[in-house]
Amino acid sequence: MAEKMALAKAINESLRRALDTDPKVLIMGEDVGKLGGVFRVTDGLQKDFGESRVIDTPLAESGIVGTAIGLALRGYRPVVEIQFDGFVFPAYDQIVTQLAKMHARSLGKVKLPVVVRIPYGGGIGAVEHHSESPEALFAHVAGLKIVSPSDASDAYWMMQQAIQSDDPVIFFEPKRRYWDKAEVDTEAIPGPLHTARVVRGGTDLTLAAYGPMVKLCQEVAAAAAEEGRSLEVLDLRSVSPIDFDAVQASVERTRRLVVVHEAPVFFGSGAEIAARITERCFYHLEAPVLRVGGYHAPYPPARLEESYLPDLDRVLDAVDRALAY
Question: Where is the Transketolase-like pyrimidine-binding domain (predicted)?
Fold first, then answer.
């Protein structure tokens, strides 16, 4: 049953399957219906399932998420699309003070099975507020699950698992990877949602990444192999919770770790990983944990974004520094 498809198509097929199998699943967002979303991720779903299941909303992110919370309280499973990463902040209050807290506030009696889809990251030459990587802001908030697929297969299955979750899930979609294709087996048995996976084995150093940076790390590992260096690439897949056991197991094999993400390094998710792995693997590490990411500056205009985003040379430089110890 495997089929090669783009990451955006895989999400579309996953949403279609969820709508078809569970009448309580709804999709909401700006232009998700007739237009099919600005990236066409929801293309054709309103046509096939109707305007009461795939709902075009006003341009009001706080209202979209607030409405989804109310629907979830009534037994629905809303999938909300935030059109671009930088547009999520009007809904930040609803997400962190209501969506994330209701389970604890009700002593576990109330569940909020809401998925908030956010296309995120750069690499598409967009204008201001269209290329943010705000995952650390949400990972800091207890009560939210934060995930990001790196390929079409994970996009398909992680979306299924996110929709089935009784806890709210922030689903970060790497927009620069929307058109990357991979084999998707729609009849497979997926692993747990929040487990990391080794996508390339190695012995000299671990590259840990998620979402858009996993492909870059694979390219780095291939380039390093030409110089006789064996790098392991670990796809974290989940930012909250993080599969620290998998990271630890990899670092115990390779004894070095470089964490790569698009978001700024300062107070980024890589800082938490570096601190935890330093505690867990102090006697295994042969070099400090290094981090590669964006700069602590507003996201630049499109013509400068390639200088802002981590690239092969910047990651290889960190690899060289780690291996020099």
Answer: 5-180
- The answer to whether residue 144 scores a pLDDT higher than 90 is yes
- CB-based contacts of 246: which residues, under 8 Å, 6+ apart? 195, 196, 197, 198, 234
Taking CA atoms, 90 is separated from 96, 240, 243, in Å, by 11, 22, 30
pLDDT value at position 1?
Answer: 73
CB 13 within 8 A of CB 5: yes
Task: Say whether 132 sits in a helix, a strand or coil.
Answer: coil
Q: How far apart are CA 160 and CA 190, in angstroms?
A: 10
Bridge partners (DSSP) listed for residue 154: none
The answer to whether the Cα torsion of 81, 140, 136, 154 is positive or negative is negative
Residue 87 burial (CB < 10 Å; 0-12/13-18/19+)?
Answer: middle
Q: Which helix (H) or strand (E) holds 120?
A: strand 115-120
- Please list, in sequence order, all residues whose beta carbon lies within 8 angstroms of the beta carbon of residue 295, skipping any fewer than 6 positions away: 264, 265, 308
As a whole number of angstroms, the distance between CA 205 and CA 99 comes to 39
**HSE-up (13 A, CA, CB side) for residue 282:** 4
Annotated catalytic residue within 130, 194, 284, 296? 130
Say if CB 180 and CB 143 are below 8 A apart. no
Dist. CA 68–CA 24, nearest whole Å: 12
| Four-point Cα dihedral 52, 54, 59, 61, nearest 10 | 100
Count Cβ atoms below 10 Å from residue 123 Cβ, excluding itself: 17
CA–CA dist 153, 181 (Å, integer)? 9
CB atoms inside a 10 Å sphere around CB 137: 18
Residue 48 confidence (pLDDT)? 98
Q: What are phi and psi of 243, to 5 degrees?
A: -80, 75
Q: What is the DSSP letter of 84?
A: S
Check if 284 is active-site: no
**pLDDT band of 179, cuts 50, 70, 90:** very high
Q: Are 190 and 157 in contact (CB under 8 A)?
A: yes
User: How far apart (Å, rounded) are the C-alpha atoms in residues 260 and 256?
Assistant: 13
